Amino acid sequence: MTQLDTRIRNSALRQRVTDADAAAALIQDGMVVGMSGFTRSGEAKAVPMALAARARAHPMKITLMTGASLGHDLDRTLAEAHALSRRIPFMSDPGLRAAINRGEVMYVDQHLSETVEMLRTRQMPGVDVAVIEAVAITENGGIVPTTSVGNSASFAILAEKVIVEINLNQPVTLEGLHDIYIPTWRPNRQPIPVMHPETRAGLPYIPVPPEKIAAIVVTEKTDSYATIQGPDDETRAIAGHLTEFLLNEVRQGRLDTTLAPLQAGIGTIANAVLHGFIDTPFHDLTMYSEVLQDSTFDLMDAGKLVFASGSAITLSEQRFRQILPRLEDYKPKLLLRPQEISNHPEVVRRLGLICINTALEFDLYGNVNSTHVAGTQMMNGIGGSGDFARNAYLSIFVSKSTAKGGAISSVVPMVSHVDHTEHDVDILVTEHGLADLRGLAPRERARVILAHCPHPDWRPALEDYHARALARGGHTPHLLEEALSWHVRLRDTGRMR
Question: Which of 16, 410, 422, 439 has a CA-to-CA distance to 179 between 20 and 30 Å?
Answer without folding.
Answer: 16
